[in-house]
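Complex record, three chains
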Amino acid sequence: MSVLVDIAFWSLAAVAVVSAVLVFVVDSMARATYALALSFVAVGFVVVMLHQSYLGIVTVLMMLMEMAVMAVYMVMYMGMNPALMPMSMVHSKRAALAVSVAAFVVLGAGAMLVEWPVRRGEPAADVTAALGEALMGPQMLVMVVVSPVMVATIVGGVVLAAHRTRYDRFGDDLDRRPPRDPARGGVGR
Amino acid sequence: MTLQLVLLVAAALFAVGLYGAISQQVVVMVMMGLEVMVNAVILAAAAMWWFLAPDPTGQVLLLVVLAAMTVEMATGFAVATLWHRARGSDMTDAATDLAG
Amino acid sequence: MAEVTTVGAEWAALAAGLLAAFAAAAVVLDGLLTARTEGLPRGPALWHPVDETARLLRQRRRAPLSADTLLWRIGGGGLVVAALLMVAVVPLGQWVLSDLDVGVVWFNTMDVAVWALVWLTGWGANSAHSLVGGYRFLALALAYELPLMFALVAPAVAAASLNLGEIATAQEPLWFVVWMPVAFVVYCLGVVAFSVRGPFTPPVGIDVAGGVLAELSGVDRLLVQAGRYALLAAGAAFAVPMFLGGGAGPLLPGWAWVLVKTGALLAVLVWVRRHLPTVRPELFMEVGWVVLLPAVLVQDLVVAVVVAGRG
């Protein structure tokens, strides 16, 4: 049983690292985006193996959705067609390689050599329920802070990215109804 | 699947992400490097939660990391869109003079 | 956990067979309804799944120049896999393939995987029409996904669990469809939308030469078409423990009721196609965010108040 767990872990870990490397190596933006998605899905499943099923599956969900939308942005900015064209746009490649290898050596050495403390406490019987109760009880502040931050991000992102302001839509006195839009919405506002 | 091995994998992911974040010229590719780094942090945090301190507070920290990653991605892409519309370019090297 | 027993992985073959049977039944029903509307003989519609499978298996596969074959095949073949993974958490009476404690979130993940798969099918073909179809799907998905997610939250809140077995047993006093109608309607809309059927067919519309289906041929086309119907069947099957009481019902055993309810809901979802006009992505975007999302949020509020008041 433990052999199966080890095989599953090592194959997921290999998929995660190899696809993370592929993100920066492959020829097309769609492949790079979905290689990143694959890396995240593999890490999400490892998190599920670490007994946090809710967080792992939510990671997979979020990352699939994010990569599907990010692929649209990648194509928009880089103008690639589905045909594979070699592309390598890097600067200071050797310095970056040196820094990343050094970082791996330092972090890996730390991981292997540090004397990790003994496990403290036992996991709850129902990890998901415990997380939910913690969020709604002692950790309510997190919930209360994250929610407005998310809304602010949505609003801020749209404000930053939209190229038409409300004066373009509603006129100089903000009184033109219906607003002037290139495509009308379904509700007729 | 011990703590050390999972942290080693997380370190490898972090190093790959760092390479991408430093070396890529295109803004969106730098952001993908950052995503890989946050991926590594999520993996490391999940491993430390399970092997060292499995109480719900640690999971809440993981949720915060996930939320932070979404916020970073959303704002990053909004800025990249703005940059692309203003200058028609997507290279980080040319973005050093965003003022004006 | 409810009294649901997990069966071994070899029963996945039975699950796949049931899914295929329901998908074929959906195809037959759609053919019969089309034959009735257009005044054609009914006989050929009954053999439609077998005919189409045979025709497409025989058809020569072709690919456009410089198509990204790896991504294309993953997108096309993945739809059936996503549908099968969706039904892996649905309890058939008292048996289930995987009694996942976060079954609802798993279903949500699989329907988000459909986002990626349909876009990849559109992108991989290196053809303008299929690319337009893929982008149209993302536009529709951005509109229906959030209402669908909040509609999935409502039964989970009422049952205080994300596990499908517990949600099914929590409906013993009253089925959720009775007091969460808005969530049920939005859920059905979401199922029809991620199967690219019903009013949500711009990604495969005839105005873009078939959209994502434009360049598909042979076994790839068979996989995508089968995947669409399989997703519809999987969505209907998932609604049974979520809204329609699971295996509850007089006379028949639990698993029979699950099959009957799945079949009934699947028939309704197939029937919907010819009674609603095709939505346009830009129009539906506003409807999804301004009408559906607030309605589902109010529904969630009502459910939460009821649960809090109940104790």
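Note: Strands of chain C lie at 5-6, 95-96.
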